[in-house]
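Title: Comparing notes on inverse folding

I've been comparing how different people in this forum approach sequence design from structure. To keep things fair, I'm posting one structure and asking everyone to reply with a full sequence. Here's the target:
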């Protein structure tokens, strides 16, 4: 029997998950599977190429457009909001970032696989791992007149199909268990570990090791970014947690990691790196050309807007990152008024229409 553990990153989903969203109701009662030494967060700790596009089954997916499948996009966003609000409540799941320079993947400046992409991939991966314990998605097929055939699938396999990824789905074995008396004259079905163990083995030894799985997480993270990038408060929470870990890096330890040392100043903080045009434009259009603090119109300044108008929400002096998720647009007055060491994400958003 495989011992199983439930990750606290996967919060209960309000109202369960519909099969169309990749689930089948409320979570099952079988405890989670341990990872037996397998890196649990491969989607983050392994390389994710910044230039990868999810071309599979998505002919109009290119550098300019994104076609949403909305497969658990808002479930992942909800969990991100919990993690951002109270990251240390999830420290068991984020522990790898707090030891052995675990935040090294966030250090290189201005990556297009952003901090938000990496956290979204973590949560999507953890959800798929949870799914191996069931409940599973049931599909019924009419194979011949009056004969219905039932098949069960893992949500991950349905996600592969939704994104057009070439993948042979795993056929979840039929239910295996027995009726047990939970209290006098009340019986209930209790599933054995046989099915969950088979799903667990498939997930970790086949799907997890595949390029298709990396592609899936990349597509899902892209969609989450597209939805969540507007939420400066959430982004500030995630950046604050990572900044805490960066601030604890001992400069002496960087001697043994020259490929990382080049990103750090002598004080152990990240060097200020010129903000690339693609970051400026993305942040500018997210803010609709308005200062995130006071709402001043800066729309006529895009072509000449200096880098000083783009504020690191979590300052570099506090361990902040050179990451698009850590940048907001401020007018000169608000930027000067904001302390170099203050973490103040703008909470003003322009309405889509006037009331």
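Reply #1:
Here's my take.
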């Amino acid at each position: 029997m495989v011992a199983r553990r439930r990750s606290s990153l996967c919060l209960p989903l309000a109202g369960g998950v519909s099969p169309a969203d990749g689930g089948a109701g409320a979570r099952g009662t079988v405890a989670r599977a341990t990872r037996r030494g397998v890196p649990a967060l491969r989607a983050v700790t392994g390389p994710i190429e910044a230039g990868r596009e999810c071309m599979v089954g998505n002919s109009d997916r290119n550098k300019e457009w994104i076609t949403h499948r909305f497969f658990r996009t808002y479930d992942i966003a909800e969990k991100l909001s919990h993690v951002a609000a109270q990251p240390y409540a999830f420290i068991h799941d984020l522990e790898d970032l707090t030891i052995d320079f675990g935040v090294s993947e966030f250090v290189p400046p201005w990556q297009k696989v952003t901090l938000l992409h990496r956290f979204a991939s973590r949560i999507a991966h953890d959800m798929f791992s949870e799914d191996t314990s069931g409940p599973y998605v049931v599909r019924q097929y009419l194979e011949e007149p009056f004969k219905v055939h039932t098949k069960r699938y893992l949500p991950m396999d349905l996600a592969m199909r939704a994104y057009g990824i070439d993948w042979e789905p795993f056929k979840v074995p039929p239910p295996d268990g027995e009726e047990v008396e939970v209290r006098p004259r009340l019986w209930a079905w209790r599933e054995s570990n046989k099915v969950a163990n088979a799903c667990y083995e498939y997930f970790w030894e086949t799907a997890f090791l595949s390029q298709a799985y990396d592609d899936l997480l990349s597509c899902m993270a892209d969609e989450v970014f597209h939805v969540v990038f507007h939420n400066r408060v959430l982004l500030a929470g995630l950046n604050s947690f990572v900044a805490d870990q960066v601030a604890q890096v001992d400069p002496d330890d960087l001697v043994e990691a020259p490929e990382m040392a080049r990103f750090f100043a002598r004080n152990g903080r990240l060097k200020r790196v010129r903000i690339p045009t693609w970051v400026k434009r993305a942040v500018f259009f997210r803010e609709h050309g308005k200062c995130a603090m006071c709402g001043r119109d800066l729309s006529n300044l895009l072509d000449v807007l200096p880098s000083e108008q783009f504020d690191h929400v979590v300052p570099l002096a506090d361990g902040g990152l050179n990451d698009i998720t850590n940048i907001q647009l401020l007018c000169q007055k608000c930027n000067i008024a904001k302390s170099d060491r203050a973490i103040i994400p703008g909470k003003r958003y322009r309405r889509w229409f006037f009331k």
